[in-house]
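Re: weekly structure request thread

Next one in the queue (325 aa):
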Amino acid sequence: MKFTKFFVFVLATICFAAPAMAATQVQLAVVTKPGSAQYVAAEKFAELINKRSNGEYNVKLYHSGSLGKETEILQQVQLGAIQMAIVTLGPFDTFVPEIKAVAFPFLFKDYETADRVLDGPVGKEALESLAQAGFKGLQFSENGFRNLSNNRGAIHSAKDVKGLKLRVMQSTFHKELWRTLDANPTPMGWPIYSELQQGTIDGQENPLWVFDEYKLYEVQKYLALTGHVYSVHIDIANLQWFEALPKETQTMFETAMRDAAIYQRKVNREKEAEYLATLKEKGMIIDEHPDMKSFREMVKPMRNMDMYKEPKTRVLLNKLLDATK
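Done, posted below.
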């Protein structure tokens, strides 16, 4: 009897002393720094997964380009070297050409329209198209409406863009957009502060948070609130890895990313007035009401360009255009 009690005591001691099972680590990469729109979504997602999985999963964030430029991050997700990423739409079009339809100029008139369409059936279809390249499209978070800045001079109408040496993302769509507007688009990875400072390029285009977080007001004088493209971030996972997860875990990841994206969009939009005030205070000359009709007229022919004639791209673009009506 004494031996039995001793055995039970020793067994219980061993059980309670054994270390808890280590959490499964999930690697998630963004190219931007803490405080950026991408990082806000990534950080919220990590927080939600840790909480909802009761510590079973731990999301490790890689930021500030520590794993390379966005195209390199996509390649790593595609190969399964890392599991997840939040990436600007532009670099995706070399992997899944039709996805560029989501960034068609002046597609969304406001945030409400963007949310309605991208959170709806057409947005889901766009995310599902990424499977052909080995990605699981989880959600659209946001970069925001893109605006044009430069050091050459004030830009009020489309004719003022002619000859502007402009940094663009490494994206077929973005190069063609600015060629259509008679600029000189120069594809570059991020960041670009030193290139602007040295005059390697005249200008760039980005949402307002980028100007503030990366202090572009120090190296850019003129800003026009063109809002020419609603720029999304696509929140993805490696498809093979994701589909190997238990179904309930897949649902948890999808729901957490949806909630993180909604949270990030809200934060981004609430800060826009603050960003604009800061840029004015820092001395940027801002045209808040440029001649948008001239921009819209000049980009109309893009619908008939070769890059939109590919059947899948044309179908998705038409669905997006119909959904925004």
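The chain has one domain: 23-323. The radius of gyration is 23 Å.
Next request, please.
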